Every structure is written in C-alpha cells, then in structure tokens.
C-alpha cells in the first residue's frame, strides 16, 4: 500500500486505511493506551495503539522511543471532541494502529528535536543532521527551495539561459582573498575558487548568449562575521543590450514574483531609488533600513556660526554636524542611558554625543546654554522637534558623523522596538562613486569592481578626475541589508585599460591577470551589464531569520570549520607530495587545534 | 523603440519598423548596395543598405566588418522572389536599413565564426568566447539549459527539494583523488572539493528531508580522457522510504520527460533491465550499447571437447570461448583486415583472434579443419550463422574474452556503420557485485561506494562471503555510455561498520574518516537510496556530440589547463605564506610550462 504523508491526514480521510512512515516525535502511555506523535516532512499525526485493535503492535510500541523510525499501518479515526487539537493540521483525527514495524532505532539525541532549544550552536552544528529535523529548520529550507524555484522560473520565462561557469579558475589579487587549489599536473601552480563568476559571465556576453543566469557558489577566504560564510550562493545575472533602467525593472519584476510566490505579499514597483550621497546623509548608511524613521538631519549650515564651538569648529574644519530626533523618548533616556549611547558612537570614532531634550517648547540639557532663542527655534524647526523629543548630535568628520549616527539609528530602532517586521522595504541605491581612495596605500580601489562602467561612459573624466567619477552601478537593499548589486560593464578596450591604469596596474600586470578579457574586448563586445544577489541573505530575510548560518544546510563556524565532519583536516604526506607542496608551520605547534 | 530579435522576423513583419542589435555575420557589396547578415542569439537576418533610403547609414555600413556589433533601424521588406532563401527562417524578408550605429568594432577573428572550421581545439579553447558564437555551440548550450530545466521541473513537481551541500569538505582517501584546498586559519589543514555530495545527501535523509536533489558540481583530480573533466556536473538525487523499484520508476519518468521536452521523442518505459553478469556475457561491457547486434555468444560448452586445443584448453583452465557473428560480412574482411582486428584485441590481453567464414553451408578458414561436421553444424546453429557470415572468436580468461570482444564489437559497429544514431536506447544494468577484489593490493574495493546496501540487506553473507555478495545497485546506460548509477544505502550502523571492515579499514580509520556518518546512523536513520547522473554526458548524448568538452562552457584541456585564462597559474609568496605552504619542486625546472 502506498505510503501516506503524516501531515496530510484530515477528517476526509476517516475510515481510510493508511501506511505511514516517519519518526517518533513523542510517545505517551495513558491508561493502557500508547500515543505516538509520528513525524515526517509533511508534519505530525497522532497514532494510537490500544489493546483491542492493535494486538502485537501494542507490544512493539512499548519499546519505541523518541526518533525511532516506524512504519505504521492502521485506519484513520475521528478524535473525541475533548481531544481535538485545533493547533495541529491533523488535530481532528488520529490513526488507530494495527501494525507497526521498527525501521530503525535511535539513541537518546543530544538535544530535543522540535524544542526552541537552549543548546549551544557548536553542539547544534556537530549534530547538524538532528538540528535540521526541527520544524523551523525544515521550513527554512523549504522556503529556500521555493525561493530558488521562483527565481529560476522567472528567469527562464524571460529567456535567460542557465549556464555553468568554472570553479577551478585563475587567482587574481584584486578583490578579496582567494581560496587556492594546488595543481598536481602543473608543479607549483594553483587554481583559485571563484569569488564570483564576473569575468566568465562577461565573456558569455562576448560569446553572444545575451541573457545568462546562474545560481552560483562563490568563495572568499576572509575572516568571518555572523553574515559571512567562506562559501555562499549568488544569483548571478548578465545581459547584453539592456539599459540600466531595463535591468533594474527586470530585477523588480523578479523580486515582485518572489515576494508573491514565497511570502504571498504584493510589493510595489518601481522601488524607491536613492543616490548614494543621500543614503549616507539621511541614514548614515549605504544600505538604509527604511522601515523606520530616526533619519539623520545635517544641520551644519544651521550651526556653523554657533557659539557651541564643538559644532562650529566641526563645520569650519570641513566636517559636519548631524542630528537624530528620537521622538517622544526624552523621558525614557536618563543621563546614564545617554552615556551608554555615547560609548556606542565612540566605536565609530566619534569624540562624543551631544544631546538636548525638548520641554515646554525649549531646549534642555548641558549644551542648551550655547544656543540663542532664535537658534533653538530654528533647530527645533529643522529637526521637527516637539515637547518630549530627545535630540542626539554628532559633530565630526563627515564619515565619522555618518557611520556613528547610522549605527546609533539602527541600535535605537531595535531597542525602542520601532521596526515593523512584517515590512519588506526594497530600495535601490544609485549614483555610487566609481572609486574609493585608500589613504594608507595611496591608491584607488574599485568601489564595486574594475569592470564597472564610469557614469556616462566618459573616458575623459576618468582620465582627468577619477576621484569624482560616478559609476553606472546600482545596489539593491532590503530592510537594511545589501541584497545585491550590479552595474553596466566596460565594453571598450581603451576604457578598460584606463580603468586598470587608474587602479595602479602596470600594463604588464593588467595583461598578466586580465589579458584574456582585454583581448576579448577586441572582437566585438556588446554593451552589457548585470546584477548579482546573495541568495543566502535573501532567504534569511524572507524566512525572518537573523543568522546566515540558519539558511545554509551545512555551514562553517566563525573559524571556517565544520564541527560535524571536522573539515578542514590533515592530509597525508603522499597527497602533499603529489601536489608538490610541503607544510611551513609556525613554531607554536604542528596543528593549531 | 524596443529591440526585435533578428531571427524572429517573418513575412508577417513586413512594413514593420524595427530596431535590431547584433553581430555582423557577413558583409557583401553588390551593385552599390551593401548586404549585412546580422546575427543575434535568435538567428540571422539580412539587412540591406541602399543609396535611396539608407542615407548616411550606407556610408557607415561601408566601414563595417565581420563581428562588428551594430544597432540597425529600418523597415522589414519582402525579398525579391529570386533572392528568397528557403534555408533561413528569415529568408523571405530583409530589413531595409535607415540608420545604423556601430556599438563596437572587431578585429579579424583568429578563425571564422560559423564555419565547420578546421581549427585546432587549442586555438578554439584559447578564444573560447569566439568559438561559443558558432551556431552549433549556441544550440548545444540552449539544449543544456532546456535539459536542466526539464529535470528541475520534473523533480520539483515530484516534491524533491533543491538543496545545496558544501564545496569545502573533508578529504577522504577512499575513491578517486581529491582536489585539496589549504586552510589559512587552520595551519597545515586542508579542505577537499567534493567528488560527489554522497555523504551529505545521506545526512539530509537522516535529517528527514525525504526527497533531495541538487545539480551539483563535482571534482576529481584524475588523469583526463576525452570524456572526463576535472570538474563535472551531477544531477544528484536521494530519497527516503522509497524502494529500488520506486526509484527506478521515478528515474524512468524523469528520462521520459526529458526526452519528450528536449528531443520531442516518446521513449518506452520501463527500460530494459539486464543483470551485470548478462551484460558482460552478451556485450562484453557493463554499459552495453544495444543499438546494434554483434552480440557475444559464449560457446564454451560447445567447444570444451574440441580438437582445437586453443578452445578446449581455455575452457579447461577456467576461461571461456566466445564469438561474434559479423553477419554477411565474410567477403568484406581480407586476411589483412582480420590481422588488424587481431591487433585490436591484443590491446585487451587476448593472445589472438580466431576466425571462420561460412560458405555454402560450411566453415572455412585456417582453423576449420579442427571441427567435425557435427561440431561445425552445432557451432553455426549456436551462432545463427549462414552463408556469407564472418565468425570471430576469442578464447582466454573470462575477463580478457569479455573486454576484448566487447571492444571489438563496438569498433566493428562503427566501422561497418551499424549504429542507428537516431535511437536512444536506455537500459538498466542491475545485480552488480558489491566488491571488486584488487589482486595487487590484496583487498576489496567497493564496486560502487562503501555506502551501498548489500543485496537483501544480508549482514551474515557480508561477513561470511563478501566476494559473492551483490549490491542493491543499478546503473543507467544510454547508447553505450554510463549515464548514472545509484543504489539503496546502508542505514544500519552494524552493517556500515562491517562494510568498512571488509574494505580493510581499522576501526580507528573508519571513525577518523566516517565517524560522523557512523554516529548519525545511531539517531534514527530511515531506509534510503538514490541515484546520480552525469549531466555533461547526458547533454553530450542528447546533442549528438562526442566530445564532453563541447558541452561545458569553459572546459579544461587534457592536462587540466584553461588555455584562455591560463589557469592554473603562479601565486605570490605572500599567498603561500598565509596558507602555511611552500613549494617542493622537482629539480627539472621551476615550472613545467
């Protein structure tokens, strides 16, 4: 008899004979009866063993423990009115067992399955296969599947071709640190795992495929944070002949489709667009979370002549003064609370956090004495301040003001519970600078990557004044996370050569690393551009999780280890010999574990 | 105005104003007119520039060369009756150009695009982006896309979850050679790139996901042949609670769907099944090509008493004699031709190739004198031989007989053009031995992998008599290629431990390498099994190609190099230092390139 899914049984199935296969979620013995909650991927159903109809099965059931794997045969029956469980899909019925087979036994698991368990993440990762049995995890990976399919279906319908680029590629020093793979055949040489398929997807445009996508694994050997993993998955898209507007509109259609199919939500398009400069000014972030207010207001013009020298000096020395109005919260913050906030902004280099409270139409606080009545009125007008509001100020270099108030804004929103978690606020950040200047190294870095088209494709500006050149680039932001980014690419050889020159490559270096691209640009390269998304991060946001590891089946820890398999691990001398390598360990030990 | 696809234009579009973007396939100047074949992903259309309507565009067109990228505006017009090209989808129309923009120029390409060019594969790989412009290549990768989507759609509908397993995993000495990835954080330790997601997909079954699939990149650092690549793509499937029959039936539904959607062909299911023993006996191969006959016939019983000692001795010393009847070809093979065939079988260790020709109801040839009339009649009956047939014999150890005649069978089929290339003959090979005995090492190897369930799940047989135990394994074969294989897996800890013991693992070694799997088997592992296919090979067969490299966008050469990017390549001292490595080069040179 064909197996029936546990979670699918309903009142309509009453009297039906069924075969179930699944795991014992729980066993309860009650007045000579045995109740087993049987769980499979679809959900849980209650199975009852009783002396009258279950016969030998009752005896077997007595030996059953949590997480045993069972095959149960029986009939679906209605539950007594009293025992109906309205919280369970299958709560109106149960299965009266007639036969049971123990398919496999289970030892006591190191932690309870299905609890919101207080277990350490290390233990959960060591027994990841058990942690993945929890309903929350099962739901997350079903959602991941659904998201992937939704994206694929959309792109297939729009005539994108799903194409696989190589994993064993060439190492290039530009960008993040590569994972390397030693070659056995070519002594002393290495492949690199791709940080992204960027160059290959551009070559596919040069090949004339016009519309490419790939859900691609990418690798970066960087120190990890909560939202970084050594390997991550990217939805990678590239098109020929499409304008920036067309690429952005296509992306919006895709996100609309995903939100509808995965979350059942209609989202509005086009998404809000915000120039990079405005995002930094108003939100102190290049990936603003627009689900709440607490915007930064630049009051430099208002206070440049202020008697409060901290403010006026900041402005006169080329910095700025910005403020956040924490509306209605003046009474919620003691001096001690504000001291704590001050510590927070100091992390970002701010020398202090000035504050004022509005009471009875006037400014109060230690610095209020520096402001004339006119100045105070103007300040309140600029900050839309009213009685009961708390005003927080940072006066410093522009980058410090933006970074510190940006971080403070987010911290306040969380602690004051100002975030509507049902919202999905998509946003484009546009008009990025093409370069970042690295003061330490005295050189330019590409803000996105060295293949990004300068705004307007202006070669002369690029040569003359690289610092001020903007990029034909666009980042997509969701709820304060950078979901992805893209750009139009350089498709003229001269422009690409100039780009490498600005980045400090000698001609030899450029040819050595990117010669194949430069050569390819000679043979009829179409205008092209694209975008790439972090799939793990998108799934994290759609699933309402906060840890990227919860969206990856077998993630690595912060030290890039897998506690389950113990990867990475030792390899044999013979393996090293074949790869023409020897270890060069520091003196401290043979192994750092 | 929206861009129109070149290849989409038909008579219905006549008088329509269009904007086209694409590559110059060819330019011809004829009586003051310029004809350009403009190509994009969809196909080619003829664009005409003439002095009356094209104006400035005609001037621009004069400078245009092959592979330039153009934007053309114009109107669709009917071609003159004489100039209609019935071989081209767009052959009834052309576009009268009114405006043209050169989007990018192109140097003369190192080989012609669209020719069946006689260019070396190395040059084609160096300029892969140009080679990929050829129609044949474009079609192959469109077919690959279609195949992938067809597989995904099928598996999604059957409720399989698309799940991503790690690429940075642990090295295990069992199986092929791993590609290693040195760890920066953990001195002297390495990750390995996966040879397949085998263990992870089994763990996902232990996690309760029940139906998993992944189109997964896999890696093997082995010496390459025409049908091997360092990285390849596998359609990887695993299920819980499904029987072998259910898995095979599901696979057949999937192949039926792919053949219908990709090739428009209805194929019959269920597929033919053949035990391994029979495949070796009848076809001399564990992946028989059943599109043609030339079957091997084991005549050991018939010749064991023969006066021809080569035959009778082979049988009496434990070997066998088998024959192939090359029907109707007696006159096509001279003694010299047969000498050539003899050289071929010697490659496989055969000492010689005996032969007989049937003429006027009797056997002819140098060995015919050894057979009595009765023996000759019996032999002809057994081999269904009739006048004009050529009979070829090998007498030797069974493995030599099968290997040599199996190879000869394929060679004859090709040279005699016996293969119907429109056929897609799917076939299951079943009842595999669980182990292969390695005479040299004096140990057993797993014929599939060490997680394969012994037939009937018989632990006692496994302990007592491993040599004769069969596997719950099934390979799927298409036209003589192994397309994929699968098995039920061991889900009981004791069985898995016994398996490792037979394979010669000490308990410590087993725990060191597979401890996490053994431990996982303790916690409620469901019965499970699956299958995996080589996607590259499937695409190769569906596209009618013979070289695996033609199905991979950026393949490696036989020495695992990419002539385009020059991967693998040198890395810096700093990179090696960070990875705690130094090179250990042999004396011959610093680099072998």
From TrEMBL, chains A, B:
Residues where L-aspartate binds: 174, 220, 448, 489
Region named Aspartate: 198-201
EC number: 6.1.1.23
Top-level lineage group: Bacteria
Ranges of residues in domain Aminoacyl-transfer RNA synthetases class-II family profile: 141-555
Keyword annotations of the record: Aminoacyl-tRNA synthetase, ATP-binding, Cytoplasm, Ligase, Nucleotide-binding, Protein biosynthesis
Residues carrying the site annotation Important for tRNA non-discrimination: 81
GO biological process terms on file: aspartyl-tRNA aminoacylation
Subcellular location: Cytoplasm
Gene3D superfamilies: Bira Bifunctional Protein, Domain 2, GAD-like domain, Nucleic acid-binding proteins
Catalytically driven reaction(s): tRNA(Asx) + L-aspartate + ATP = L-aspartyl-tRNA(Asx) + AMP + diphosphate
Broad class of enzyme this protein falls into: ligase
Gene Ontology cellular component list: cytoplasm
Residues binding ATP: 220-222, 229, 482, 534-537
A GO molecular function held by the record: nucleic acid binding
Subunit organization: Homodimer.
Similarity comment: Belongs to the class-II aminoacyl-tRNA synthetase family. Type 1 subfamily.
Function statement: Aspartyl-tRNA synthetase with relaxed tRNA specificity since it is able to aspartylate not only its cognate tRNA(Asp) but also tRNA(Asn). Reaction proceeds in two steps: L-aspartate is first activated by ATP to form Asp-AMP and then transferred to the acceptor end of tRNA(Asp/Asn).
HAMAP family linked to this entry: Asp_tRNA_synth_type1
Record protein name field: Aspartate--tRNA(Asp/Asn) ligase
